[in-house]
Design a protein that fits this description.
Mean pLDDT: 81
Number of strands: 0
Low-confidence stretches: none
Number of helices: 16
Distance between the termini: 54 Å
Strand content: under 5%
Order of helices and strands: HHHHHHHHHHHHHHHH
Largest sheet: none
Radius of gyration: 20 Å
Amino acid sequence: MFALLGRLGPGIVFAAMAIGVSHLVQSTRAGAEYGLSLLALVILASLLKYPLFRFAVQYSAITGKSLLYVYKDTGFYAKWLLIISVLIDLFISTAAVALLTAGVIKYVLGLSLADIWVVLIVFACLCSLLIASGYGLFEKFSKFMVFTFTILCFITVAIIAPDGFNSTTSLFPNIEITSGFLLFLVAMAGWMPNPPSASFFLSAWSAVKHNKDHSDTEAKQNVKNVLFDINTGYIITIIIAICFVFIGAVLIYRTGVEFPQSSPAGFAKFLISLFTDTMGQWVFPIIGTTAIVVMVSTQFALMDGSPRMLSRIFTSDQDNKFLYIAFLLMQFTGVMVIIYFFTSSFGVFIDFATSISFTTAPFIAILNHKAMISDEIPVEHRPSFLLQLWSVIGIITMFAAGGYFLYMKLLG
């Protein structure tokens, strides 16, 4: 068991990132507003992005190079796509996650501080941890919390399942296809299971793990370990997404309770009460602590990954501590400005952040796909025809959804 956990690393942190906005907010909201009618679409949104993330880690595990090398080598447009994607994470995505993290912390700890002050405190603590190189300890803690959170989700679903299946209210309502509904689908898919730029972070980790002095057998084993890690994390994200759609459908949609939209603290209280009302108040310290950890892990990854990627863009794929700290401070300033001026409506802001990320997804998927079928990859390591077809279908679908979102926002 411990040997198995030892093979898991950032793939589990990837799962912890996914449990943040996409699962706690958007999956629950899908169930709360549409019952189980969107369950298949939640799963599909996750599956369509799988090649995007798999190719990122697989390329780096084989070549020892990160995707940053590929994007910079491809040309001007690819480099700027990378910069824009990372800037979205640096400011907009981090602000959305920071708000939800602050809401969870305020409710669990009973704080009466304003959101912006909680964000300030969390940023300061995480910055200290990053500068002190505390990621290894954090990764180990994330493993434990992700599995704890998964078990709690299973228990909750098992308890409420009889009510759901015996309900006189249909959990599969007919859905009217409107522009608002389609825009919600894009927002839901934006971070399902994670923003596409998370592939950059996974790639960087995989490149670090690669050792050019490996024997062929060891190199193959390294690739297998990397794929096992990302596959395990990915399966966990899909399972938890299914759980939250079911929880939203049974505990919110079926009962007619209104889903909170305006306040991150109000949403956190509402979400945690779903667990405590089902299992009892004894679970509050467990679910509260776990919710804080998985949200902080999402923010931690964005705070570490975005400044690090930007510093590498300007230093030939090498870490530069001065630039890293400079971009970290820039991120802090930008996030505080966004939260202070532009987040009066929590639900609208979350939709905006996740939708913007989704519009970059097909372009990132194309470049990741090209990297895996390039001459750098030995023939025996290239993706199968079915996996390549899977990737192409995902790219086409993401282009269609992203194009529709931009059309509705700009011309609709």
